[in-house]
Amino acid sequence: LRKTALPHYNISPSPKKRKAKRFWLNSSPNPSASSERPTLPNLSFPHTPPTPAVTMAAEQSAEHFRGQARLPGFAAPRRYDLRLTPDLAACTFAGSVSVSVDVAAPTRFLVVNAADLDVSPGDVHFAPKGSGQVLLPVEVTSALEDEILIIRFNEVLPLGEGTLVIAFQGTLNDKMKGFYRSVYELNGEKKNMAVTQFEPADARRCFPCWDEPSFKAVFKITLEVPCETVALSNMPVVEEKVNGPTKTVYFQESPIMSTYLVAVIVGMFDYVEAFTADGTVAPLPHYLPQVSLSLSPLGGSCWPHFPFAGTSVRVYTQVGKSAQGKFALEVAVKTLILFKEYFAVPYPLPKMDMIAIPDFASGAMENYGLVTYRETALLFDERHSAAANKQRVAVVVAHELAHQWFGNLVTMEWWTHLWLNEGFATWVSYLAADRFFPEWNVWIQFLEESTTGFRLDALAGSHPIEVDVNHVDEIDEIFDAISYRKGAAVIRMLQSYLGAEIFQKSLAAYIKRFAYSNAKTEDLWAALEEGSGEPVKTLMHSWTKQQGYPVVSVKLKDGKLELEQTQFLSSGSEGVGQWVVPITLCCCSYSVQQKFLFRGKQDDFNLSGLVECQKKDDFWIKLNVDQTGFYRVSYDEELASRLRHAVETNILSAADRYGVLDDTYALCMAGKQKLVTLLHLIAAYKNETEYTVLAHAINTSLSIYEMMAVAAPEELVNMKKFLIDFLEPFAQRVGWDAKSGEGHLNALLRGTLLSALAELGHQSTIDEAVRRFNVFLEDRETPLLPPDVRKAAYVALMQTVNKSNKSGYESLLKIYRETDLSQEKVRVLGSLASSPDPDVVREALNFLLSSEVRNQDCIFVLRGVTAAAHEVAWTWLKENWDYIAETFTGHLLTYFITVTVSPLATDEKGDEAEEFFKSRTKASIARTVKQSIERVRIKAKWVMSTKGEADLGNVLKELAHKH
Ligand code: BES
Ligand code: ZN
């Protein structure tokens, strides 16, 4: 963008003149549109974005608009006519946008977002409606830091409607945001596709616009593309016109929506298709026309009406791979039907396309009617995808489709309310997965989401669910475990407090009330409060407006239960937060559950039935029944040992077994429980039957093992023996080979167990892995190495690799290079850095920066670094930081920090990291750096407290020789 000043022209252009100036306003193929613009729907905007005093706008100077968190509200877009012409070979694009704008207050300025676009001042003009005038700006200033274009006119713009026209040029970048290129192979030839990724604030990198979620508008998109390509956007195609080697593709006008949901894709694809025939999930035959039943929500146009045809749902894949889209397609059709029922509002668009993109920054993106995915989150290969891959596809599809209502139809008013989008979609994706795959026990698996939320929120550097956002650079970092996982967990807590039916009905009312509009957190609480008659606002404010969560300490004293809440922090410090805690409680049996709101700091409770219950031999009390609440519980010694007994005898529910372990682990890390107590507790899970609980016990054990490598290396032999003895009986039961007809969870467990044994260096697991791997290397279809155990086998193989014997590493690279399945590539990448030899780890890390690894996949190699090499990875990160910081943005960049810094476990390393990032931090990584360093400090403290546990050696000796 160039800063320029132009003289002021006031001209009444003839249509010819307009054409000569490359304005394309009148070239629409739609006959009604070419002569006269359709009248705008009468849209009401529920918000008024904060503006510098509106009445003053006419007097302001361009300076007023700099350094503001949000755009001024004196003019708002109603309808965008957007035309884009990507050049896939040159990786550039040209475009023009014509925006119907509503000028609501006197102003000489129009201020829009734009970034990385080339706009010549002569390419901007404004035509007040009905005036016959075209106003040219006197000055077009681009404020680079604010990513805005300040367009100044010589005179005050007339109030009411007008059309802002801007022509621009840009680059199809390689950063996976804005309008970007992704590279694929077709018939052995490398090709580019053009893809958009606009959330949170990168639509401005594709076209000048009001790039904030509350400026909703209608979009009419036109693409000029090579004839042989498939061109997709949010809405169905209305017409294609071929002109020589290119074609112009006209899309239907969208309902009003936010800019971050606009999408455009151009490339070569195949697809599979099905329809949501109302009420059934059977796909309709392909020959039926792909049309929608519904009227446009604007009531403007109407699509043909065919009996039995529902919404067209397609999964687009690379050419030749459409069969891999079938599983996602089936899930999508079922999900759309379920959500239509659940939200009591039909899916708002005439079609739903989902597409796998080879280069993709996040997991998936919910663009309205055109959802984009990483290949691993959408494609499923019957022979080479694992059970975990299948579950991932189902959950991601359900999540993105949930956004079509929660996010797209009802949109957050500002990024402070991002959690409404993400927390809700996360929660409801489990609801859908549970409905379609009840045997997966996803609500138990959901506890892993809560745990990740708990861990981040136990840092002083966490943030409230409703978080202030003052600059666009801060937005990326709040797509984190607080918005997603704590968000989902507090929704679950509320749902379980209010009851499923009231919750669903109130949600449906909320969706109806705010459809085609924007909402804030409070709006949701109001709907739920109305629907339930409960004090939802008071209850929930304590969870969304302050960071952190409580640990409720429970003591049994004189037949009474004493409760006290304090803010839980992993550092062991006490925070000052206080919550309204929905306590649930069971005493000796699940048949009677007690519930109450705990508001104070401290209280005593007389429990009915407590006295009788206390007399029983197997007396136990469990708070936070089934772990539906977002709080931890710390029991007095007596109650804790009773619970351990209840775990051992399998009296508790799976969710409660999970909770007892997770709380104890967290308390131990914070120095509130002894490590030996935690180790005894882990031993109580030796007969565990639930996959998620056992997997959690395994992960907890491995993390203790990692910490002990620093704190008590002399105890590692016994620790290893204890863990291997603990795992072996399970591993023998599940074996290496899938049993016919066995369940999904068994398949997941097999991989988890074998990976853990491999990481612990269990020799017979490693030998068996190598034996099977060698067969697989010769025959990729061998039944000896099914997809569910491949990652474990690769990790095991890497235990045998060192710098003088690298054949295992080379074989893995061969598999990586030969497969065309992304999930297989990810399995290999995830194992490459798990050799115990630092030189091999370095080589793997260097490989991740090579051109052979897509930038989107680098993270998997880093995640595979094992305890032995955390410091190698940290040194490597420092050496390569400049390149990394230049090459990666958003999450891809912050991941490098989280994964590499957080595992360090000494204060010395913490100081080093602090020093290193002091001069290298910037707004987009500041939060992550702070959190990662805090995690190092916490680990270091845990190491110190472990060193002080005098009986650790004896207890481990005892545990290691028990079996
Ligand atoms: N809206 C997000 C995609 C996104 C993430 C955009 C970060 C911009 C920044 C999408 O709905 C999402 O949440 N995707 C998840 C997958 C989901 C199943 C948790 C992701 O990308 O990891
Ligand atoms: Zn999401």
What does this structure look like?
The protein has 963 residues and is α+β, with helices and mostly antiparallel strands. Among the domains are: 68-266, tricorn interacting facor f3 domain (Immunoglobulin-like, Sandwich); 268-279 and 310-391, Neutral Protease, domain 2; 410-545, Neutral Protease Domain 2 (Neutral Protease, domain 2), CATH 1.10.390.10; 548-651, Immunoglobulin-like (Sandwich), CATH 2.60.40.1910. Helices cover 39% and strands 19% of the residues. The chain is built from 28 helices and 31 strands. The strands form 8 sheets. A 7-stranded mixed sheet has the order 6-10-4-3-13-16-15, with no helix packed on it. A 5-stranded mixed sheet has the order 18-19-20-22-21, covered by helices on one side. A hairpin with a 4-residue loop joins strand 8 (139-143) and strand 9 (148-152). It is globular, with a radius of gyration of 29 Å. Bound molecules: ligand BES and zinc ion. Zinc ion binds at residues 366, 399, 403, 422, 425. Zinc ion (ZN) binds at residues 366, 399, 403, 422, 425. Its cofactor is Zn(2+). The active site is at residue 400. Keywords: Aminopeptidase, Cytoplasm, Endoplasmic reticulum, Hydrolase, Membrane, Metal-binding, Metalloprotease, Microsome, Protease, Zinc. Zn(2+) binds at residues 399, 403, 422.
